[in-house]
Amino acid sequence: MSSKKRIRGRLLGLRVIVFNHDDARRLYGMGYYGKPLGIAKPRDTNFEAPLELSLVEALYLLEKGVLEIVDERDNIVSVESLFMRGEKSIPKFGLIYKVYKELRDRGYVVRSGLKFGADFAVYEKGPGLEHAPYLVHVLETSDIIDPLEIVRAGRLSHSVRKAFILALVGPGKSPTRYIIFRWSKL
User: Fold this and answer.
1) Portions of the chain given CATH number 3.40.1350.10
2) What residues are labeled active site?
3) What is the side-by-side strand order in the sheet with 109-112?
């Protein structure tokens, strides 16, 4: 994924903004990264707008060498400092990032699932090409899961025609376990 010319983004709070429109289109076209500002549902890369990246997306692209991030004072932001900012500000950031990275590395398009009450909406092709077939909620393997929450998540995902997946992240370098829930008729 690494490209010759790294795209520059500016860290503003918990977002990274790519102000150059050509770079914004290029980055969005590389896998639906970010959201063009002021455009609710872009159909393609034909937009004239800055691109807003979440901290999770920005960290992934920074690690891959695609993105260069500067702060408010034009200091280069390292992978470590961006990760620490996420850890301090966003609950479960490390877990969420681990799952995001795994899914992206497997070729999925991963977007925020907030409007569905999940951590991620996951696409096989991309937004505008299909509806996201999966909703992913990230938990630690040590978390206690309320069965009622599973029923709620299952009913919501079923009503929007998406499979509900729990991503269970274990300690250290242990592999993430993915459990998919599907409705069945008896």
Assistant:
1) 91-186
2) 123, 131, 162
3) 109-112, 120-123, 134-140, 163-169, 177-181
Contact 96, 56 (CB under 8 A): yes
pLDDT, position 3: 46
pLDDT digit string (tens) for 152-183? 887 777 777 888 999 999 988 889 999 998 76
Over pLDDT 90: what percentage of the chain? 70
Cα–Cα nearest to 25, from 3, 51, 1: 51
pLDDT digits (tens, 9 = 90+) for 109-118: 999 999 888 9
Domain 91-186 annotated CATH 3.40.1350.10: yes
Q: Which CATH superfamily hosts domain 1-90? A: tRNA intron endonuclease, N-terminal domain (3.40.1170.20)
What gap in Å lies between CA 111 and CA 108, rounded to an integer?
10
CA pair distance 50, 181, nearest whole angstrom: 37
